[in-house]
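Hey,

Quick one before I head out. I ran the complex with guanosine-5'-diphosphate overnight. Inputs first:
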Amino acid sequence: DDDYPPSVEARKDKLLSGLLAVGHDERSCVSRYQSVLYRKELLHKPSPHLISRLRSYEALHKRCGPYTESYNKTLEMLKTKHRLESTDCNYLVWISFSGLGNRILTLASAFLYALLTNRVLLVDPGVDMVDLFCEPFPEVSWFLPPDFPLKSQFNSFDQKSPYCYGRMLKNSTFANSSRLISSSFIYLHLVHDYDDQDKLFFCDEDQTTLQKVPWLILKTDNYFVPSLFLMPSFDQELSNLFPRKETVFHFLGRYLFHPTNPVWGLITRYYHAYLAKADERIGIQIRVFDTGTGPFQHVLDQIIACALKEDLLPRVSREKPIINQSQKSKAVLITSLSAGYFERVRDMYWEHPTVTGEVISVYQPSHEEYQQTEKRFHNRKAWAEMYLLSLTDVLVTSSWSTFGYVAQSLGGLKPWILYKPENQTAPDPACRRAMSMEPCFHAPPFYDCKAKRGIDTGALVPHVRHCEDMSWGLKLV
Ligand code: GDP
């Protein structure tokens, strides 16, 4: 027929097999429909159930989102602090908290929890969320309006706050019990320092209590999805949504997180200038949690040991000065706060020929030296770099880093994880392949809600395991 060969538009699956809704304005967020041009085809398809739940979530969001009649009505209850009658719409407010990688993971966790509990997710814009992310839902914003009554308290919410769920359980005074029964809002503290009572969030019984609360306000810096998979009340629905469990963040991330046009500009300009023409792209994400200024020799040794041993990069020849050049080129994209590692890898491939004759080019978009969470261009670059890493073919990441988790999961990549160095020495082996592309939950509960005692939650079901990079963490495989 005359549509053969099909155009890029027709050939490429720009709605990601139904994951994305039609009807968004394309120009206000170019990345939403163009990202497909930069990515490999989806490894797995989203389940029909996930697609249908996303469409019904969008309808709910439209009916209940900011400034709708239902929103205004439910907001009234917040002002009086009491819930009087049952509500038509219930909400989950996500507080902007912690580094960008952490925030991306917690927001996806919050969205999944909202899906499971039929809540409307509202996002505290913090200082930079509007600048970094497009609206994911059609027509009605996901951002919490600036006049939201509790907004000024977000920073001070902690385990000691009177409306903190864990605290209410701990001091079960008359005031607290009646608060639990009648309060229009509850603060959920799921930050890494949370205690045993806060962790009861992950018990079915507690979910029954929380179900009736119209406003849940959430602060977390953890990807808590793996523990949702251990809750009997969510188990069946999660299996239907995600027949392949390791695709949770992959699909939710690609559904929710679309870079705004300025960030998309950073991504696409960089991609075309440095990465597009290579035969293969290799991402190396370097995050050093040691104190002191790098670059550290042991970290450099480790990166090179991993890349050579796993055959990700070719060896160089220090004896033979010139070897025939093959046509094959590999582009290495390094991300790090420091420039030192990049310089050393680049120099190695300039000063010596590769034994395979492959041409290796090495790039690093920025070296910001230290974390500067409040600066606009800093965060744009951080987001652009996570995204660029997700566009590579082969990925090496650092232990414990949510920055790396976002890149691997968005990209659908099982990275080689660099083990965390101890005592300033490169570990041997230097790295290992991840079991799955899923992020690791760093601070999971170890509690059996039914038996009311401690348990190893990483040994209960085959799909929730301890992480490669953090022995007490949990991840989906
Ligand atoms: P994590 O601390 O590695 O889990 O990742 P987060 O993203 O939560 O916090 C680290 C923050 O440090 C990032 O958000 C950036 O602001 C900054 N950062 C760390 N590594 C890099 C990097 O390679 N490139 C850039 N541009 N920023 C980085």
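The pocket of guanosine-5'-diphosphate is lined by residues 98-102, 287, 335-337, 366, 368, 371, 373, 378, 381-382, 385, 401-403 (CB under 6 Å).

Talk tomorrow,
K.
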